[in-house]
Amino acid sequence: MRYKIPELLRNMFNASSAEQSKALKDKAMSFVRNGLVQAEAEQGIHRKQWFITSSTGEVTLYNALLLNAFFPDPKRVKFIFDDVRVRQESAEIVRSLVLDRQSLVGVTLLSPKSHLLIEKLFDVGEFDLRESKLPNPFHVLPQIALGSNIGLLQALLTQSASLDSRDSLLSAYLRQDWDEAMKHCSQIKKLAGQEESYRELIDAVERGYQEAQEFDQLIDIFKNQ
């Protein structure tokens, strides 16, 4: 196979307009630059053209853009592919965001595929993100529906006044406001039957809080020397 990246994006996500195609291409190229997606360059008349030449490259690009809908930082998306712990934490975040919702900040979700997406993300041992495509829970990809620079999580943060405990915990975690996140963890632990549902996310918050505390202690040691 040998597809130009814009052509592949149109086929994968039905990006019909030039504006939509450009928005996705810019996202796709961020994954080429950070080494997640392997692509071949060919000098065109005016600029380089980039081609995906393998099914692995196609699947990786597809999954990267799907995950990018939730996590706008390309570095975070790359870590999901490469780091089991980050993938599990990210799966918990996605689960907390989409489970039992029909829409999220105005983006329609396809419920059966939402469940399958979460299941496959958690299946670290069997589901290879470079070999199999994740189920797409979106009627329209958020990068198209919301704009190229706005992810679902960023859009969620703009609604902070109406966040419930689950979303407030996610918001604090993503801002790395560890004190605030720990406060929400404590509140969730007090709710009967709720703690286990958020186990992965609570564990991630507690690790982040501990690492932040250790870093602060290290800084204090250097200051006092």
As a percent range, the share of strand residues is: 5-15%
Gap between N and C termini: 60 Å
Shape: globular
Order of helices and strands: EHHEEHHHEEHHHHHH
Number of strands: 5
The description of the largest β-sheet is:
3 strands, antiparallel
What is the average per-residue confidence, as pLDDT, rounded to a whole number?
A: 81
Q: Structural class, please? A: mainly alpha
**Integer-rounded radius of gyration:** 19 Å
Spans of at least 5 consecutive residues with low confidence: none
Percent of residues in helices? 55-70%
- Oligomeric state, counting identical vs distinct chains: single chain
Strand order of the largest sheet: 1-3-2
Indicate the topology.
Elements: E1 3-4, H1 5-13, H2 18-33, E2 40-43, E3 48-52, H3 55-68, H4 74-82, H5 84-98, E4 103-104, E5 107-108, H6 111-122, H7 142-145, H8 152-157, H9 165-175, H10 178-189, H11 199-223
List descriptors.
225 residues; mainly alpha; 3-stranded antiparallel sheet; two-stranded antiparallel sheet; globular
Short description:
With 225 residues, the protein is mainly alpha-helical. The protein has helices at 5-13, 18-33, 55-68, 74-82, 84-98, 111-122, 142-145, 152-157, 165-175, 178-189, 199-223; strands at 3-4, 40-43, 48-52, 103-104, 107-108. Helix 1 (5-13) crosses helix 2 (18-33) and helix 10 (178-189) runs antiparallel to helix 11.
Structure write-up:
With 225 residues, the protein is mainly alpha-helical. It has a domain at 159-225. The chain contains eleven helices and five strands. It has helices spanning 5-13, 18-33, 55-68, 74-82, 84-98, 111-122, 142-145, 152-157, 165-175, 178-189, 199-223; strands spanning 3-4, 40-43, 48-52, 103-104, 107-108. The chain has a three-stranded antiparallel sheet. A two-stranded antiparallel ribbon has the order 4-5. Helix 4 (74-82) packs across helix 5, helix 9 (165-175) packs antiparallel against helix 10 and helix 10 (178-189) runs antiparallel to helix 11 (199-223). It is globular, with a radius of gyration of 19 Å.
